């Protein structure tokens, strides 16, 4: 049942993303009330289906890193280093460990200052990303 609900949602152009013990549906305005109710009933099954680990591409067949298992492209390194890092396509678990180990301490938007000069933060006001703390937020960085 959960896969049928997911297929229906995807067919109408709706993304379903697990967020802790909840599901985020985007755009929610596209989902008819009847389908929302069916999704609520199947929530546990949908969360379980979405939580299944993805199967990584075999390194020898990876076109992204050409079978090396490491890559120095901006998508893999997030511009945190010039050195090759585990490829996001064929070594997703290793890349997640690398991401956690290299997570910046300071806010990416204001550089840890807590004050930003961009238009969005009203030029010289409190950074809207970190709320002025200068620290990296838990889920966006």
Give an account of the 3D structure.
This protein is of the alpha+beta class. The chain folds into three domains: 2-51, Orthogonal Bundle (Arc Repressor Mutant, subunit A); 59-101, no CATH class; 106-141, no CATH class. Helix content is 30%, strand content 13%. The chain has five helices and six strands; from the N terminus they run H-E-E-H-H-E-H-E-H-E-E. It has helices spanning 2-11, 33-41, 43-51, 74-77, 92-101; strands spanning 15-19, 22-26, 70-71, 85-86, 115-116, 125-126. It has a two-stranded antiparallel ribbon with strand order 1-2. Strands 3-4 form a two-stranded antiparallel ribbon. It has a two-stranded antiparallel ribbon with strand order 5-6. Strand 1 (15-19) and strand 2 form a beta hairpin. Helix 1 (2-11) crosses helix 3 (43-51). The longest helix has 10 residues, at 2-11. It is flat. 14% of the residues are buried.
